[in-house]
Amino acid sequence: MARKTKRGDGVVLPSALIGNGGAEAASSSSVDRGLFVVGALVALAVGAAVGWIARGGEVRVENTVQSGLARRLITNEYKFIEPLLGCETEPQETRAIVSLKEEIGRFVAQEANAGRVTRMSIYFSDLKTGRWTDYNERERYAIGSFNKLPELFAVLKLARENRPLLDRRLRVPSRLADATGLSFPPSQSLQPGAEYTVDALLEAMITRSDNDAFFLLAETFGKKPFDEVYRDLGQWEPPVERDNDSVTVAAYPDFFRTLYNGTYLGRKLSEKALEILSKSEFKIGLVAGVPPGTLVAHKFAERGSVPPHGGDELHDCGIVYFPDHPYVLCVMSHGPNRLKMPLSIAGVSRVVYGWVQQHVSVLTSD
């Protein structure tokens, strides 16, 4: 199957992921920014619950806003996830959290005045309470390498039914993607003609944002699993190969919330996915804005010469594991030079982390 590349900057979908209709991606307005993953698993078998407790787990009930309740399984078995057992709530912005939005707005204005960005959009959500806020949420940005996130979901979903699939070996074709247009290329590339396990290709695709790994996985497993991920998570129609494919900052937080809750891929594969995302080589965005040693499970994306008016884009989205209060933070940015934009993303990350540090009591009591 023919391989598709475009300019080397960001990711243009391979032919395996292109639908025949060629319709434009639907607006992400169908995604409710305020939903705190309502997908309650309330009919749990008593025997399964006993099994969890026998393995050292306990069920913790957390209060959420609007008198909702989230029930999570707390166990030493997992490092990155806290499985969601039940939840029914639809939180809104609170008066206190509006102050975070104001701090973000002041910082973005500062970065724009300095010429590092022309616009930025930010989404924040506390994973414990569901409290959230966003900034400049209607702006749209190129998808770029964010397409690798649903591909990770798609392959792991297949592996959930067929675990040996991760050990399957795939041969890298002789012609590889052109990476000359990338501002943040992988530290190492796949070798033409070499064989790699699917597991190793997933790691390369996420940790190094390797386009060749993405293309090989997409062409091997096809369009259907990729499309199903978007639709299963209630997203817009899967994107097609068009220069104007774009999303808002609200498009990808649900991917990370779903992993944290351990609901879509199951607990072990959700833990695996977040562990892979925590090994990303891109350390100059979200990671640079938090104290050293803070776990961040994230994916970045870049794109150059973004239509219709040109300019560069750089994005970073993931979970910041603030002690006892992990949160999702997504930052999308547009500006004249991608090489300068990590400073702006790191700055937003620093502002948010500092705010959470000062307002932990507000997040749990307001």
Low-confidence stretches: 1-9, 18-68
| Alpha carbon gyration radius | 20 Å
Instruction: Quote the distance from N terminus to C terminus.
Output: 55 Å
The main sheet orders its strands as: 5-4-12-11-10
CATH superfamily: DD-peptidase/beta-lactamase superfamily
CATH topology: Beta-lactamase
What is the CATH architecture annotation? 3-Layer(aba) Sandwich
Task: Kindly report the average pLDDT value.
Answer: 79
Please indicate the percent range of residues in DSSP E strands (runs of 2 or more): 15-25%
Helix content: 25-40%
Shape verdict: globular
Q: Major sheet: size, sense and barrel closure?
A: 5 strands, antiparallel
Number of domains: 1
Structural class given helices, strands, pairing? alpha+beta
Order of helices and strands: HEEEHEEEHEEHHHEHHEEEH
CATH class: Alpha Beta
Number of DSSP helices?
9
Number of strands: 12
Explain this structure to me?
With 366 residues, the chain is an alpha+beta fold. The protein has a single domain, classed as DD-peptidase/beta-lactamase superfamily (Beta-lactamase). It contains 9 helices and 12 strands. It has a 5-stranded antiparallel β-sheet, with helices on both faces. Strands 1-2-3 form a 3-stranded antiparallel β-sheet, with no helix packed on it. Helix 2 packs antiparallel against helix 9 and helix 3 packs across helix 6. The chain is globular and about 55 Å long. The chain starts with 45 loop residues before the first helix and ends with a helix.
